[in-house]
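RECORD TYPE: protein structure
NAME: Zinc finger CHCC-type domain-containing protein
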Amino acid sequence: MSMSTSRLRAFRVSSRRLAAYQRSFAAITEGANVPVKSQAPNRTEVWSRSQRPRAQAMTGPRFEQTDFSLQPQPYAAIELIHKQPVRWTHDRVVACDGGGGPAGHPQIFINTDKPEIAVCGYCGLPFANEHHRQHLESLPETSYPL
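PREDICTED:
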């Protein structure tokens, strides 16, 4: 087998993979005239790249009850966590365990040295150093209530 034949074969395999990849991300035209359902009562669009829109939620498996008006629609936590007030501290480092117990998360330590609102990566609770309060309150807008 010559070098050019092996390169041609590798190119064909690569082009097939690329075509399959493009097909997997092709626009879905099924149900184009279906009204858009909101993700949650307080959120209209998805908030994660891995999340499927609610309109496509029950298309794969078979469900007995597909009437969305009868399905539970909890509020989106991403909107609710931004209503939490900032927890002011005098310490440079704070520990967050999400409330502890079975409803909590592993304890992590959050640095509050910078003049910004530091957020827990697990539960999203906001923390800030009391030393930076005047600066944070002077900002025109913050993502959490002060």
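COMMENT: Residues 39 and 54 are 6 Å apart (CA to CA).
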